[in-house]
Task: inverse folding
């Protein structure tokens, strides 16, 4: 899914689709991401300093989410097999 042209985007709700790739590098104003129930394999939110709500459950192939060191996301919904990693994902 390409949302790079929407640089002012603050809320992204794309839950329960078949999305496998979500590039957010141009969307630095994002505050909320709801992307549960997709086919994501990788997610990098490390450059989203305004992000306060991240919900990514039911993405069976997504095990690691890249965040920045010290990034504080107030609301996070992940599953047991998922982790937030400030050191990057392999």
Result:
């Amino acid at each position: 899914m390409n949302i790079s042209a929407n640089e002012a985007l603050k809320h992204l709700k794309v839950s329960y689709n078949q999305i496998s790739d979500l590039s957010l590098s141009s969307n630095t104003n994002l505050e909320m991401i709801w992307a549960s129930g997709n086919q994501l394999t990788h997610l990098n939110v490390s450059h989203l300093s305004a992000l306060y709500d991240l919900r990514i459950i039911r993405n069976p192939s997504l095990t690691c989410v890249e965040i920045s060191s010290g990034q504080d996301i107030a609301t996070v919904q992940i599953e047991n097999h998922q982790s937030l990693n400030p050191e990057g994902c392999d």
Observations:
- The first strand starts at residue 11 and ends at 13.
- The chain has a mean pLDDT of 93.
- The CA atoms of residues 35 and 59 lie 8 Å apart.
